[in-house]
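Marked as duplicate of an earlier ticket. Keeping the data here for the record.
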Amino acid sequence: MMNKQEILKSFDPSQPGLADATIFGLPFSIEDSEIVIIPVPWEVTVSYGAGASEGPEAILEASFQIDLLHQEFPELWKLGIYLDESPDGFKKKARKFKKKAQPIIKALESGIIVENHPDLQKQLDKINFACSDMVEAVREKTLHWLNKGKKVVLLGGDHSTPLGYYQALAEKHEQFGILHLDAHMDLRIAYEGFTFSHASIMYNALQIPQISKIVQVGIRDFCEQEVAVVKNQEGRVLVHTDSDIKKQLFEGNTWQHLCDHLIYSLPQKVCISFDIDGMSRMYAPNTGTPVPGGMSYEQATYLLSRLADSNKEIIGFDLVEVAPGDDDWDGNVGARMLFHLCGVLAKSNKMNVGERITFQTS
């Protein structure tokens, strides 16, 4: 069996990725990889679009077609990026409990009070218990790899999936913030009765005392309850709506200046939470709850790269809500964003990703 140095010498990154290898066609084992991705194919509480549980598989399939020579991080692939197995039985459990959730969602949409219907309340309790099991399984798996010295990231699934990941990071870091790229605030309290709803992830994250600040970027949809949560947090949650950002850009401000302001407002240690619907729908047409507007792919990657170049320390990230459609477009975009996120994580942690490739242009 070859060691990592032997693999580096024998592997040709200019050829198509190895179909029997890990994500991006890389030839490394999990032991030889410095970045470990935990896939969480889970979507139970969604009430609109579906498909996020298929996101990790779609991204994996698309990843084999991505060229490994990233212009900004040309040596990234040499670090090793490995897609771990998802926690046992997650996909099957997600299908089971998603089916159980639909009658509850339909009842709520019809104005029925679930608490007045014992059968519905019993099913709701079972779903909340199953989701709490998911959170704990993700926490344990994250800690397992963190304790082995790996940089660990999470690939959803819907946006409920990173809570256990944040809990694990909180066991390793006394204080950190979340840079939250999303169309939605996700600050609803037990949305539709589901304690661990995808629409409640940032409210649940606020219950972790080590999370000192959440900076939200690209927000286009929110409700009165969420605004009240923001105000009650008294500066712990900073919101930059897409409308406010675009207004500043239209009036002559630069994206560089806005990015630097966002980054300055973050604490020293940062976890990135990237919901794919933070970008314009042209990049993720099949995501579950699309909203008009949003960042371009280049705006998002510029912000992330600017963060990696700052004096902040990126301690992890999650990428969620990628849902494949009839073609491989969503998976393609998701895989490329995942690769870029791995690059900014590695660069922020002083790992060798190489120097940006530049070309003569005149």
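See parent ticket for discussion. The domain at 24-348 is CATH 3.40.800.10 (Arginase; Chain A).
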